[in-house]
Specification:
Elements: E1 2-5, H1 11-18, H2 27-36, E2 42-47, E3 50-61, E4 64-72, H3 81-95, E5 100-106, H4 110-118, E6 122-131, E7 134-143
Parallel strand pairs: 4-5
Antiparallel strand pairs: 1-2, 2-3, 3-4, 5-7, 6-7
Length: 144
């Protein structure tokens, strides 16, 4: 297993990863911008030199970081890769002197919520989002 900065030639693999994440995943749309960000924190996780997941951390204010885009290919889920990415980003935030690390996740994403709760994140806000005629619940966690 290896975690490294995302590169332009990772797009094909990440499109495949995200194909199974959401009905309409935003990662393929933002991929090019994230890869080109100067001082960006867009990383991929590989297994046997194949990209199987990704994540991004962005400093939104001095010392306040936002985690987003954490994805793992469906064939590699429940094997600890999301935990490894989470640990990587929390360590990186620590190295950058974080005050807070925040994220948002889909309410029914029990796996993501469980991982983050294990790292001390707590639910601060519950919101509802109307999309295509269905109400979907989202929760945001904040680590203090």
């Amino acid at each position: 297993m290896n975690i490294r900065k995302a590169k332009e030639n990772d797009k094909k693999d990440l499109v495949e990863v995200t194909r199974y994440s959401w009905d309409d995943d935003y990662i393929p749309e933002v991929f090019d911008d994230w890869v080109k960000e100067k001082n960006g924190n867009f990383y991929v996780i590989e297994e046997k030199n194949k990209v199987i997941g990704c994540g991004r951390m962005k400093e939104i204010k001095p010392g306040i970081f936002w985690l987003e885009g954490l994805r793992v290919h469906k064939n590699f889920r429940n094997k600890g890769y999301a935990r490894k990415l989470t640990e990587f980003f929390l360590k990186l935030a620590g190295e950058k002197g974080y005050k807070k690390v925040m994220f948002s996740t889909y309410f029914e994403n029990v796996e993501s919520r469980h991982i983050m709760e294990n790292y001390g994140f707590v639910v601060k806000t519950t919101t509802r989002m109307l999309k295509k005629g269905k109400i979907k619940m989202y929760k945001k966690g904040i680590k203090n």
